[in-house]
Write a structure and sequence with these properties.
The protein is 12% helix and 48% strand. It has 90 residues and is mostly beta strands. It has one domain. Strands 1, 2, 3, 4, 5, 6 and 7 form a seven-stranded antiparallel β-sheet that branches. Strand 4 (28-35) and strand 5 (40-47) form a beta hairpin. The two termini are 23 Å apart.
Length: 90
């Protein structure tokens, strides 16, 4: 993700066992929703610029030490960019 420019770094917030964070990128945004009580993670990267999906998945998997994850890719259309959702658990 080194070729993307972070405009505003994540400012994590917690509510009980949940943690949420979003970072604003020049190309769009990335967000994380972590629920420790359910040991689940939802992460997404929405970008109007092409990016390396495998690198993003690996970075997320390594950062959160996911044992398993499901990757969902929604291809770009003429008027929107592809959101990528990673759903994982420990």
């Amino acid at each position: 993700m080194a070729d993307m420019l972070m405009l505003i770094p994540p400012n994590p917030m917690t509510i009980g066992t949940k943690l949420m964070a979003i970072a604003l990128l020049a190309e769009s945004h990335t967000s994380v929703h972590l629920d420790l009580s359910e040991m689940s993670l939802h992460a997404d990267l929405f970008s109007c610029k092409p990016f390396d999906l495998d690198a993003y998945a690996k970075l997320t998997q390594d950062t959160f030490r996911l044992k398993q994850y499901r990757r969902i890719f929604e291809p770009r259309s003429l008027f929107s960019a592809p959101p990528v959702h990673l759903v994982g658990g420990r």
